[in-house]
Amino acid sequence: MAMGPSKGHKATKNTSKQTRRGHNGRLTKRTKTVQDMIQEMCGFALCEQCAMTLLKAKDELSNILAATRKAAAKRD
Length: 76
Fold this sequence. Notes:
By secondary structure, this protein is an all-alpha fold. It is 58% helix and 0% strand.
């Protein structure tokens, strides 16, 4: 008498192919190259430009903060 998880006759489970809905929105190689090419030709969008200026300002502020901390540590 067979017992345990492997008892009975062996059967393979039916696996269905992933539907279109499953990989919707994923960036393909072709789409990425086309987007990069368009972005290279047209430049950055306005929202991207604003984000880059904010990032630059953040870097400058962090450098200033680091310098002031360094000066304060040297004073002590």
